[in-house]
Amino acid sequence: MKILEIDYRDLTKDIKCLTILPIEFIEKYGCLIYCKHNNGYVVLITSNFEYYNINKLSFFIKEEIYLCYVNDNSWSEILKSIKLSDNRSQAINKFKIKTDLSSQNALNDDSTKFYDIEIENSPIVKIVESIIEEGINLGCSDIHFEPQEKIVKVRFRIDGKLQERSELPIESLPEISTRIKVLSNLDITKKFIPQDGKLNFEYENKIYDIRVSIIPGIFGERLALRILDLHKGLMKLEDLKLNKYVYGEINKIINLSSGLVLVVGPTGSGKSTTLHAFLEKNLERNENIITVEDPVEYTIPGITQVQVNNEAGLDFATCLKTILRQDPNIIMIGEIRDLETAQIACRASITGHLVYSTLHTNTSVGVINRLKDMNVEPYLLVDALRAVISQRLVRCLCDKCKEKVKITKIDAKFLNVDEDISVFIPKGCNYCNMTGYSGRCGVYEVIVFDDDFRKLIIENSSINKFWNLIKKKKIEKMIDYGRELIINGITSIEEVQSILN
User: Fold this and answer.
1) Cβ(377)–Cβ(368) under 8 Å?
2) pLDDT one digit per residue (tens) for the chain, 501 residues
3) Is pTM beyond 0.90 here?
4) Secondary structure of residue 246 in the 3-state scheme
5) How far is CA 177 from the centre of its chain?
6) What is the dihedral of CA 98, 104, 105, 110, to 10 degrees?
7) Region at 416 (left for phi over 0; alpha for psi -120 to 50; beta for the rest)
8) Which letter, b or e, does each residue of 140-170 get, where b requires 16 or more Cβ atoms within 10 Å of its Cβ?
């Protein structure tokens, strides 16, 4: 950003530049893209322009910004001329989209209607594209358009945390929603029902798969976009950065010939990533591997992947029944959601198949009660269950700015370590967008079920007895794994505390 100390009237007005910003944006923030200059654009600003709003301009232009101040009288004249001019609308290309209308919306015998949608050179198109591009550049997993009473809040989920990026006028929401619906092949006439779709977004010669979810709210449609990098590739077991103990236990588990192996944790804890790393390792065994997923997010060469389609009657249970006739060695089920799926998974593991799946529970031993709540018989669990891996994700400290400090007494007690050790805390720099963190890593807990655990299942023992047995066997718990990450300077105490019950 640079300041131009010249009279704006000495510059040549560019009609196309005047159309870049929506008129509502110009009036609200007191700025206007006036013309091109050198390698960037001249932006006229008024006395009420706040400099922290510069980041909002980045949604429209990526080039260098040259700020040029105009007085209030000149600003009023500029606004008046823009509103009276037809140049803004003339500079916008239009095309027509033919849309099927449902019979309930049709007002006459003609069941189709043409909608004028401003695209290509439209400011809204540039807004949507710029927001998605910024999300990709920042490595965000989700983009949220959240309508409020007067604004649309744009938030990015980066390293598992939502960060507010911008505010847009609420008047821009219908066009934003329509643009995303067009890209996702969704029905632009339906505004009061939820819709799900997907689109392919090309950026810097890479294709990104973006899943779109739209729900109606009281202030308009709320949009959530999940970004999947199709070029990212699957993580290998070695990429998970497991410690020596957990790596050894997991290697034993994935070399089993049969049994049920469950990866548990809340939504967004990396369960699917872990399972895909297992499958990538299992490919070395040259065996028949089939997965059932909802949806299939990443394709794995050498593996047959089946996508659930409930509308067509192809649910998890139906898929599994068919898969068992395909002579598989290893089966991966995206998630166990009901009794029938759980029973088929257990029986498949008993009859000589290695079965991987996920379950939403907060703890590793909570798996037992969760499956019992589904009415899975204890005898099936005893024969089928071989191991449970519980996991969470924590943010990694930024290596560029993390700061070493002496541990406090309270934190030393929490970690059960000496008070003379040092730990690292987040600080924040330009590299990590002032968060103090960059990237995430897993925190794991692995329980291999032996005869002692099976006995507790048969006896319908309490959860406390399972924990006591874990303590007796000196099995590494999640707190132990987290402690190691803290001492090694990988994450902070606050991050580990946030994931523990």
Assistant:
1) no
2) 788 888 888 888 887 888 788 777 888 888 999 999 888 999 999 888 887 778 778 778 878 899 999 998 889 888 877 765 544 443 333 322 222 333 333 333 333 333 343 444 457 887 898 899 889 988 899 999 999 999 999 999 999 999 988 888 898 899 899 999 999 999 988 888 999 999 999 888 888 999 999 999 999 999 999 998 877 767 889 989 899 999 999 999 999 999 999 999 998 899 999 999 999 999 988 899 999 998 888 888 899 999 988 888 888 888 999 999 999 999 999 999 999 999 999 999 999 999 999 999 989 999 999 999 999 999 999 999 999 999 999 999 999 999 999 999 999 998 888 888 999 999 988 888 888 999 999 999 999 999 999 999 999 899 999 999 999 999 999 999 999 999 999 999 999 999 986
3) no
4) helix
5) 19
6) 50
7) left
8) bbbbbbbbeeebbebbbbbbbeeeebbbbbb
d(C-alpha 451, C-alpha 282), whole Å:
26
Note whether 275 and 361 are within 8 A (CB).
no
Longest distance between any two alpha carbons in the chain, whole Å: 88
Q: Do 412 and 418 form a contact (C-beta atoms < 8 A)? A: yes
The structure tokens 């950003």 sit at 1
Strands (E), 170-258: 195-203, 206-217, 220-229
What distance in Å separates the CA atoms of residue 24 and residue 47, rounded to the nearest whole number?
17
Distance in angstroms (rounded) separating the CA atoms of residues 141 and 132? 11
| Peptide bond before residue 216 is cis, with ω within 30 degrees of 0 | no
Place of tokens 């790596």: 247
The H helix count followed by the E strand count for the chain is 18, 21
Q: How far is CA 185 from CA 178, 222, 380, in A?
A: 10, 17, 45
> Could you tell me how many residues make up the chain?
501
Q: Kindly compute the dihedral angle of the four CA atoms of residues 470, 474, 479, 481, in this order, to the nearest 10 degrees.
A: -120
Q: How is residue 277 annotated by DSSP?
A: H
DSSP E strand stretches across 375-500: 385-397, 403-406, 422-425, 437-448
Q: Nearest-5° angle of CA 151, CA 153, CA 156?
A: 170
Nearest to 57 by CA among 126, 104, 160: 126
Enumerate domains of the chain plus CATH numbers.
2-90 (3.30.300.160), 94-102+115-229 (3.30.450.90), 237-499 (3.40.50.300)
